[in-house]
Amino acid sequence: MAAARRDPGRVVLEGAHAVKHALRFGADVELITTPDRAGLEALLDALAPDVALPEGRTVELDPDVWRALVPRELPSPALAVARRADVEVTDVLAAPGRVVVLEGPRHLGNLGAVIRVAAAADAGGVLVLGSADPWHPTAVRAAAGLQFALPVARVDALPVTDRHLVALDPGGEELGHGALAADAVILVGTERSGLSTELLARADTRARLPMRTGVSSLNLATAVAAALYR
Fold it and tell me: Rounded to a whole number, what is the distance in angstroms from the first to the last CA of the chain?
């Protein structure tokens, strides 16, 4: 597990929900460990009857070995290693459906929550601009492993695209129901400073979420959820 955490081509999945999503969405899961295979199987039968533990890749560990292996108490007894999905920036921008672009997200937990929301809303993909890694363990935990459900990638700057760019910005027009095109690229900045002037200048449209006067901002994942579902 320690070697897998250092490997840029692999990701460690913590808990049954992350393992469930990885298996459900076709991840290359190399190893699943648990101190209680029967208990894990019962949990998956209750939560995800469409998912089964792969034979030959699921190992039941002695409880003492498990406690030494797991860095923290997990909500459910599963720890797995999977190959990261091989996704290019072009794959994200070519995906059907709305694509979310996050510029310089600062909190990996929020980044993971955005991926979880995007997967739930059947978005086309999530593209991160800047240094934040959408496959960082914190982001994977917050997304419950849903990085495998849609294309996710990181890049330094947004490439040229002919898709319609919609900037979430307080100075934009109020975002009404059904206002986003089915293939829109939604540009979202940080909670503190919003989008950069450079990215705002590239937007074809600026839109804002209706908010009560005096409320300064929404949590990043909440704003993305409101935009996708609106």
Answer: 41
Predicted confidence (pLDDT) per residue in 11-61, tens digit: 999 999 999 999 999 999 999 999 999 999 999 999 999 999 999 999 999
Other C-beta atoms closer than 10 Å to the C-beta of 144 total: 23
Range list of H helices, the chain: 2-6, 16-24, 37-47, 63-69, 89-93, 108-120, 137-143, 197-202, 220-229
Q: Which residue(s) pair with 60 in the sheet?
A: 34
The residues, ordered by sequence, that sit 6+ positions from 144 with a Cβ below 8 Å of its Cβ are: 15, 17, 18, 21, 116
CB atoms within 10 A of CB 166: 24
Name the token pair of 132.
């934040």
Beta-carbon neighbour count of residue 75 at 10 Å? 9
What is the pTM (predicted TM-score) of this model?
0.94
The answer to whether 10 and 19 are in contact (CB under 8 A) is: no
221 phi, psi to nearest 5 deg: -65, -35
